[in-house]
Design brief:
Structural class: mainly beta
Strand content: 35-45%
Largest sheet: 4 strands, antiparallel
Radius of gyration: 15 Å
Helix content: under 10%
Shape: globular
Order of helices and strands: EEEEEEEEEEE
Distance between the termini: 21 Å
Strand order of the largest sheet: 4-5-6-7
Number of helices: 0
Number of strands: 11
Length: 150
Amino acid sequence: MSIKDAYLDKANNVHIVDTDGQDAQVTTTGNILDVKKSTDGATVAWRVADAQGSAPDGSDADFANRGSHQVVVYRGGKTGSIECMPFIRDYWFWKRGTRIGIDCGGMHFAGTEILYDSSTLKQIDSVDDVTVPMEKRPEWSNSSLHFSGD
């Protein structure tokens, strides 16, 4: 299935629209923070909000400011998840969506960037932000360039 669009509805659930215009709601929990579609039209990913009171800064937070330790990946009609503690601060597609990277760590400290295969969700590579200077990181990891990787 090729994906034309992915979006959040007013209840914070993910919808996926295929190239035939079929709109399918794929979540029902209403706790989704954001959703991204890969440029190859094969993968959609979203962050799941942690429980109330688990904002990345440790404070009680409204829904939009909650942290997340889980990214769900939808590809080929199936979902799988990537988890990392304490928070997944960002995620992005690489190589048109065949890879997905996450930035995992505390809110105000260096963390780890991890690259996964989008089909298998197996880890491919990782970079420790503390020990590897920005200029020595692999291209997929450059946190100032988190984008789809086209």
